């Protein structure tokens, strides 16, 4: 029996009795379940999960998270909200869209799975290694999240942007989990979102994930960017300390498109965020930045994969982490430059700041190059705060604890400052500053939403 399968079966039984869904979603769910039952939860024997131990998820049975009726919804203020301006919100609770919490601009169309006769999620495109699963459409290293998501999906939310649309203030996609307080159970939810951005668009998107209780949140997002479109994207993980998040984002880019994507992992007992970007045609450019903050005994794992599948493509990555207490972080960044993908420019950097001698980081930047006319670099650093910098601030009557906090804030905010979209940058700066100050995340009263 594969690891964790016995604990997962109650959740699979529960999802089978969920509300009616189209046949194609039942087939996708069934195929995902077969994969998970065969493979089980990922273990450290797998190279992609070498430094992340999920054994805690086998310390209790899984149940599928409850789908709430409109008159039974918990208060919206129980969950964090985006603190800056936005053009609207698409809210999901336990993997199901909540119309009462959602409002979108006129040029954005939102549909759910029951509005599609066949699957709106496209799978099966070629993998760098030729090991794509017919079920998940993902490289082998990402099979776990996508198969788990497919097996427990209640719905699929598809967001279609009209051609030529300009959204400089972000469309906020909120995926919330509301789970059990039992110490012998895990409440699992699997939100699936697909965003289609056609040619001529300039769009900002923010994904916020948060959980209340003992939850396992498995969000999967597919963003398809057409020729010449520009996308600013951020995913912000604010899961409570008792929750686990296993997330996956796949971004596919066409000719001359641009995408900046930022991952802020600020919560969760265990957080795994996988990001895959495919630069499919010449002229495509991607910026991948991230920030993770961990304290206590929290575990944070980021895995990125950039596929330069065409010549004249560009990517850059900067991931930063701040760790204290006995926390642990993992970064595995992979850049693959395909054969005949000449004139490619790729850069990758992972910097880590340790505020405790007991904190630990495992970092593994990778380059795989099959072309000969490229410019590529990667690097990683792990260090502590310079005592001279602390002394400089203390000499100006700043207490030591406050001096360390100021220096850590400057190290972290460097990622937020790099965000080109002003509205996303302001919101990210606010959330990061609150987290570094040790305050709770923003609530609904702090939001400024515009329909």
List keywords for this structure.
alpha/beta, globular, 451 residues, ten-stranded mixed beta sheet, 18% helix
Describe what you observe in this structure:
- It is globular, with a radius of gyration of 21 Å.
- The protein is an alpha/beta fold and 451 residues long.
- It has helices at 5-16, 23-39, 143-152, 387-394, 400-417, 422-436, and strands at 61-64, 85-86, 88-93, 96-97, 108-112, 157-161, 166-178, 185-189, 192-197, 202-212, 215-217, 220-225, 230-237, 244-253, 258-265, 270-279, 285-294, 299-308, 314-323, 328-337, 344-354, 360-369, 374-383, 448-449.
- The strands form 3 sheets. Strands 1, 5, 6, 8, 9, 11, 12, 14, 16, 18, 20 and 22 form a 12-stranded mixed beta sheet that branches. It has a 10-stranded mixed beta sheet with strand order 4-3-7-10-13-15-17-19-21-23, with helices on one face. A two-stranded parallel sheet has the order 2-24.
- Helix content is 18%, strand content 39%.
- The chain has one domain.
Write the layout of secondary structure elements.
Blueprint: H1 5-16, H2 23-39, E1 61-64, E2 85-86, E3 88-93, E4 96-97, E5 108-112, H3 143-152, E6 157-161, E7 166-178, E8 185-189, E9 192-197, E10 202-212, E11 215-217, E12 220-225, E13 230-237, E14 244-253, E15 258-265, E16 270-279, E17 285-294, E18 299-308, E19 314-323, E20 328-337, E21 344-354, E22 360-369, E23 374-383, H4 387-394, H5 400-417, H6 422-436, E24 448-449
Parallel strand pairs: 1-8, 2-24, 3-7, 6-9, 7-10, 8-11, 9-12, 10-13, 11-14, 12-14, 13-15, 14-16, 15-17, 16-18, 17-19, 18-20, 19-21, 20-22, 21-23
Antiparallel strand pairs: 3-4, 5-6
Helix pairs in contact: 1-2, 2-3, 4-5, 5-6
